[in-house]
Specification:
Length: about 850
């Protein structure tokens, strides 16, 4: 019977709750709006976390057991980010992991690459992957047309020019042709036979980089480096994934694969000395956008939780005000014998109704915002349009949990305050100035103080990141990108060989330098800060002895004559490349200062030999150390190879000019077409913009998110402060009227009310400052702050001024009304 009564009471409470909400539509709208923003923001960010970090690969089963793996090697850099120790896995090591590890269901090899691809009437750079033949089978994916790769397509040097294309490419490039299988697609000018079309919604296994094609490992040499790596155990190129068997922990899997790596080290000391392997959960994958966006989404989760707290405090304040209007009703109910626990249940049920409605609206808001992360990336950027949230049952369950938690946070305090009502005192009281009202006013003031403190934390975090972004945008990378425009031409698709490509580059440079406003121009295989990264090659230096666990390797780029002058990179010794460095002269190399320090111990190496990819070269110059992949990278050894002495066909031209990109686009197209009317030119863009698209993308996202959430928090805090001060003025109208009657001036009343609001704001700023001192260090531990002190006094001062300015604006109207009170009317009320 007790259970039956509880259900009956709950049904009655829901009916009464809905009636009360309909009767107070204005209150209900404001409360639901605040909660919808708080709950919806939490659900949206959780959906991004779910869809980008934990389950980023649509249609792939058991992603909770998937891991990424990468080699560890002392003295190596992780993609230029400044973290020592990571390297790519070699193909032969990958095969040994497949054969020897028993706790894994499968391993797949993967490597991001790019290719010039003709789509429609223009050439674009399409992102693709070089993968092992078991790639689609292991992931449980079946092409909608054709097939995936076969095991024999892993072997045979450049012997299997086949490709699986993405669903998007099939729709856009081939107009959904059902007979596309067997047709040819040019990749970097070479024909590849299409053998399959990937399922809709599958973008590959590199978070943030939507793949448009996949090619088998046998074609590695065409897309990864300039040498065949499938028979060289010491030459890594794989950034792979694996799936654990059910019940296997990450620790067990790590122990097994580390044991295999140790055995390989003992068996092949020449190539594997000091080399290990490390597993990562998907959300920590170091070689794609998952690892990059994880700190951003972590900060966003903290920010939206603070917004939720502020929203709950606002709704709690609204409920306290509403409880004053219902004081007579509640007093009568208690006097007639209603139990306080029964009353508490009714009030919490009304709060639960608000949360459930707001939770449903919040889920809709999360669905509408599921693609918001991708909106922060430029449409022309190689970064993904597939960075979207996943609205699945986990997000729905999370949303429901947040709604229930919100009920406890905003409904419990008003319900307890109302439940403690003094019946006798309330029945005797004829005004709203009872001690209960004063107690509720103190609670509301405390809530406003918390709102201001939480808003201050968000403003400080946003200001720190905004300052970091500003400094990144004006940071010195060691060269001068300002005033440089860049583009590329599809020479390989036009049928050029290396000799003809060199003649084209020289002719085009001569023509471009004659364009009015052009100062200099040069070519490079890879642009600075490119998502493709620099090439890596094993090296041998005359006179340098390797350490016991060291394998000498260096990142390098292939650049043309005039590159260093054009990019304003100082040559500290020797010379830069000239047109005399060609196929008829010795192979020339330029090293940076960091490489001189490491391999020649500071001794000038001009004229000395260095072997790169089994080719001996002579050092002709020393260049200033610059940034190559990111602004935050540590100084690293770097090598430049002469473009005219390699077999490079496709490259990028960089032109230093005073003309805008639009004018240069027309001039470059004119000069290129005068040499070959059929050439397709890629997007013309300033080098600074190109760098910012890639290097600043993460910072821009987190700044934008914190700006949005911080703005919402400030608005809610201002509304809460306005409501508290307005209520205080309404409760003290008689007191203010009496003061005016006794001679107090309007200025005095205005100052009194403003001072009360500013005291609350200052207390909130003080509390927020203490919390921010501890919380901002978590931002500093990642790569989100560049050359910024997380406890910068200037930032804290600016945040304080913002909060106080908002507080003054929130208190102004109530203070103005207080200063205009009519004493006669106030004393009669």
């Amino acid at each position: 019977m007790r259970n039956v009564n509880f259900i009956e009471n709950l049904v009655r409470d829901f009916r009464l709750g809905f009636r009360m909400l309909r009767r107070n539509s204005g209150f209900s709208f404001l409360a639901i709006l605040c909660l919808t923003i708080g709950i919806g923001a939490n659900a949206a960010v959780f959906s991004w976390t779910e869809g980008i970090l934990f389950r980023p690969f649509p249609a792939v089963a058991h992603q909770d057991r998937m891991v990424s793996f990468i080699a560890t090697k002392p003295g190596r850099y992780d993609k230029g980010e400044g973290n020592l120790g990571y390297d790519d896995v070699s193909w032969l090591d990958f095969l040994d992991f497949q054969r020897s590890c028993t706790l894994f269901e499968w391993f797949i090899a993967d490597h991001i690459t790019g290719s010039k691809l003709g789509i429609g009437d223009r050439a674009t750079v399409a992102t693709g992957s070089v993968v092992s033949a078991n790639y689609f089978d292991a992931l449980g994916l079946h092409p909608i047309l054709g097939r995936g790769f076969r095991s024999e397509e892993d072997w045979g040097r450049n012997g299997h020019p086949v490709t699986v294309v993405s669903y998007w490419l099939w729709k856009e490039r081939f107009r959904s042709d059902p007979n596309v299988v067997g047709k040819k697609q040019l990749l970097d000018g070479d024909p590849y036979t299409i053998i399959g079309v990937a399922p809709k919604g599958f973008y590959g296994t590199f978070v943030g980089y939507p793949m448009q094609f996949w090619i088998p490992a046998s074609m590695q040499e065409r897309f990864v480096g300039n040498n065949y790596k499938l028979e060289n155990r010491g030459d890594g190129w794989i950034e792979g994934f694996a799936r654990l068997k059910p019940g296997v922990t990450m620790e067990q899997a790590q122990a097994e694969i580390s044991a295999v790596a140790k055995r390989l080290e003992n068996q092949y000391p020449d190539t594997n000395r000091g080399r290990g392997v490390k597993l990562f959960p998907l959300w920590k994958t170091p070689f794609n956008q998952a690892g990059t966006l994880a700190p951003t989404l972590g900060i966003a989760l903290v920010a939206v939780f603070l917004v939720l707290l502020i929203a709950c405090a606002n709704v709690s304040s609204l409920l306290l005000v509403r409880s004053l209007a219902r004081q007579h009703e509640i007093t009568v109910r208690l006097a007639l014998g209603s139990g306080r626990d029964r009353l508490l249940q009714q009030l919490i049920t009304e709060g639960l109704i608000l949360s459930l409605i707001a939770g449903a609206c919040g889920l809709i808001l999360a669905y509408l915002c599921r693609n918001l992360i991708a909106a922060f990336f430029p449409q022309s950027s190689v970064l993904a349009t597939n960075l979207s949230g996943s609205i699945d049952w986990r997000v729905v369950a999370f949303n429901g949990g947040v709604a229930l938690l919100s009920t406890v946070m905003f409904a419990l305090i008003p319900a307890l305050q109302t439940g403690r009502l003094d019946i006798a005192g309330a029945l005797k009281s004829e005004s709203g100035t009872s001690s209960g009202s004063r107690a509720k006013s103190r609670v509301r003031s405390a809530m406003v103080l918390v709102q201001v403190a939480l808003s201050f934390i968000l403003v400080v975090g946003g200001a720190l990141l905004m300052l970091s972004l500003h400094r990144l945008q004006s940071a010195d990378p060691g060269f001068s990108p300002d005033g440089v425009v860049t583009t590329g031409f599809n020479l390989s698709e036009a049928g050029y060989d290396p000799a003809r490509a060199e003649r084209f580059r020289n002719d085009l440079i001569d023509r471009v330098k004659a364009i009015p406003g052009v100062e200099s121009a040069s070519f490079a295989k890879v642009m600075p800060f490119s998502y493709q990264g620099a090439f890596s090659a094993p090296i041998a230096v005359d006179g340098y002895e390797l350490g016991p666990n060291e394998k000498a390797a260096v990142a390098y780029n292939e650049v043309g004559p005039g590159y260093f002058e054009n990019m304003r990179i100082p040559i500290v010794s020797g010379r830069e490349f000239t047109r005399n460095d060609n196929e008829n002269s010795f192979l020339a190399a330029i090293v940076n200062e960091q490489m001189v320090t490491k391999y020649w111990h500071g001794v000038n190496p001009i004229g000395k030999r260095i072997r790169v990819n089994d080719k001996w070269m002579q050092v002709v110059g020393i260049a200033k150390t610059t940034k190559y992949l990111t602004f935050a990278e540590l100084p690293r050894p770097f090598l430049y190879v002469c473009l005219d002495q390699s077999s490079v066909i496709d490259s990028y031209i960089m032109v230093r000019t005073s003309q805008p990109p639009g004018a240069m686009s027309f001039a470059l197209a004119h000069d290129a077409h005068s040499l070959n009317a059929g050439l397709e030119m890629q997007e013309v863009i300033t080098l600074r913009e190109y760098m910012n698209r890639l290097a600043l993308a993460t910072q821009k996202i987190v700044v934008a998110l914190l700006s949005i959430f911080g703005g919402i928090a400030l608005l809610m805090a201002a509304v809460g402060l306005y409501a508290v001060i307005s209520y205080a003025v309404s409760q003290n109208r008689r007191e203010f009227g009496l003061r005016v009657a006794l001679g107090a001036g309007a200025t005095h009343l205005f100052r009194t009310v403003m001072l009360r609001g500013l005291v609350l704001a200052l207390a909130g700023v003080g509390l927020g400052s203490i919390a921010a001192v501890f919380l901002t260090r978590f931002i500093a531990t990642g790569t989100l702050l560049y050359d910024v002190n997380p406890r910068s006094p200037m930032v804290f001062m600016v945040a304080s001024l913002v909060i106080l300015t908002i507080s003054v604006a929130a208190c102004f109207t109530p203070a103005w009304h207080a200063s205009r009170i009519d004493p006669a009317r106030a004393l009669r009320e």
